[in-house]
């Protein structure tokens, strides 16, 4: 595995462990951090990236071709993300959940964290962002992927650039996709800020690595050399 990929792996591993510890303290009521959505995405996102990079390192040793290793590692990472997301979501709701009615007649789901007998802390969880908000986020990501395909047409004969462009597109689309989902679900400004920060923290290391790698491959191509992967 390249040095840059190892660095991203270590950073994401630290984020996954720190996010898991924060998530546990939060659902136990030891800290009053009110956004389970942020910690859920922090754990699921960083965990999926770690798993994908580990798979990439192993598959490049044993797979028949590097292209096959890239595809399998990406598929493994994408497949694991919703599993971790739902797992963290249900763990977060292990203490029960409440439905709060607001003065305007609207209702919202919260995770109820017991503080003391008869007293619960209402914590925002990810339940409000399932359904239409999730579909909206998926549509935003699909638009970025389509733009990556369109931008890779001049390099049709070299799948390396297409793969790098798709990686960049998926990572960069995470912030607007999540922001759109939060806006569609009409979340509070505090919840939006914490969630957006969690997504940024998770995707910045691999996004920087992918963009730098794309720029490196572009320089190699212009120099007329064969890129080393």
Automatic annotation (TrEMBL):
The keyword Membrane applies. Keywords: Membrane, Transmembrane, Transmembrane helix. The chain crosses the membrane at residues 7-26, 38-59, 71-91, 129-150, 162-182, 194-211. This is Uncharacterized protein.
């Amino acid at each position: 595995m390249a040095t840059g990929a190892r660095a991203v792996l270590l950073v994401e591993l630290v984020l996954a462990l720190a996010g898991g510890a924060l998530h546990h303290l939060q659902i136990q009521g030891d800290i009053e951090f009110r956004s389970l959505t942020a910690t859920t995405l922090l754990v699921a996102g960083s965990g999926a990236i770690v798993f994908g990079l580990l798979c990439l390192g192993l598959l490049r040793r044993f797979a028949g071709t590097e292209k096959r290793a890239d595809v399998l590692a990406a598929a493994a990472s994408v497949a694991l993300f919703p599993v971790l997301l739902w797992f963290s979501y249900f763990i977060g709701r292990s203490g029960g959940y409440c439905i709060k009615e607001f003065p305007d007649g609207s209702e919202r789901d919260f995770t109820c964290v017991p503080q003391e007998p008869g007293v619960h802390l209402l914590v925002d969880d990810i339940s409000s962002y399932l359904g239409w908000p999730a579909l909206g986020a998926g549509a935003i990501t699909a638009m970025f992927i389509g733009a990556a395909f369109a931008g890779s047409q001049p390099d049709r004969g070299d799948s390396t650039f297409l793969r790098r462009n798709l990686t960049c597109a998926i990572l960069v689309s995470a912030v607007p996709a999540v922001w759109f989902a939060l806006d569609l679900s009409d979340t509070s400004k505090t919840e939006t800020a914490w969630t957006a920060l969690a997504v940024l923290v998770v995707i910045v290391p691999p996004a920087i690595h992918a963009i730098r790698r794309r720029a490196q491959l572009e320089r190699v191509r212009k120099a007329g050399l064969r890129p080393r992967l």
